[in-house]
């Protein structure tokens, strides 16, 4: 039963089927470390968000720009791929190597639609490789830990009246601002412990993921003119320090009836220190950050059940908590969500397993803001769909 339980839980936790706190995409999942025997898994996910909003009225000097313009869908579809390998050295010591894409953003406001943000866009990409060891003291207690090397890069463009009137050739407005952030990597660590009762397929695992610090080479410009030229050399290319958040994951599962598993997870991430304040942008905004993300948590709970000797299914409910208010960054115009995921797992043979799932997400309403917490648009009634597929091989 344990093999079935592991594969059923994996359906709900494969890429894009996990939490979406802040910039999260993979939730730094390490479940492969607890698979029986030697195991390799390739997972692929595709995310289809539908996130749109309506401009709010905005004062512009002595006049007010009317609202009402629709932004269209501002969230681009994206993929997430993960590869994992787990190997047993002996009955007590095992290792795992995981390649994933832990963080990301793909937001684009089409020009000619939203007056407030038309032309604004952001792309954040990441890559990570995690090497872990697990030591079992006995059939119940174990510890695990290792190192994670992670790279992050980004590109941000700010456009629209929410950032001021456009002034070609003068750095007096952020309407037309661009920040290009080159890739940089850093080494973090992972440490945790687990308690198991194999006879009832119980496992509780607590894992801490350290923060990583990235020094991103930064080039700033306004309306295509680099900052050094616009400011007479007062500002130029620089390095922006960005912290990827530390986080804690709590994963659990237990058999609750023959061939039936209750499983779930909780994740808390400390995003308060994730600030992106390149030199000129910080000076123009009195030290503001391109990001505005609070510490937050998310969770999943579900049931998996064996349907036949080869086929298993699962259903899971997910919840990502709202932030303290609905004023959010235009670069991430959402504020928590609820989701429902369905999955199937099929054992092609004793060595090969195929699993797939679909997840529907209800996205909470939010109001993108700029300046002194001034709402510029209202985003309501949004949703997303995610599909995931994985192939596992035991050897």
Automatic annotation (TrEMBL):
Protein family per UniProt: Belongs to the OmpP1/FadL family.
Keyword Lyase: no
InterPro entries the record matches: OMPP1/FadL/TodX
Classification via Gene3D superfamilies: Outer membrane protein transport protein (OMPP1/FadL/TodX)
One Pfam family of this chain: Toluene_X
Record keywords, A-Z: Cell outer membrane, Membrane, Signal, Transmembrane, Transmembrane beta strand
Matching SUPFAM superfamilies: Porins (SSF56935)
GO molecular function: long-chain fatty acid transporting porin activity
One GO location term (cellular component): cell outer membrane
Signal peptide from the UniProt entry: 1-20
Subcellular localization, as worded in the UniProt entry: Cell outer membrane
Topological relation to the membrane, as annotated: Multi-pass membrane protein
Membrane-spanning intervals of the chain: none
Name used for this protein in its record: Outer membrane protein transport protein (OMPP1/FadL/TodX)
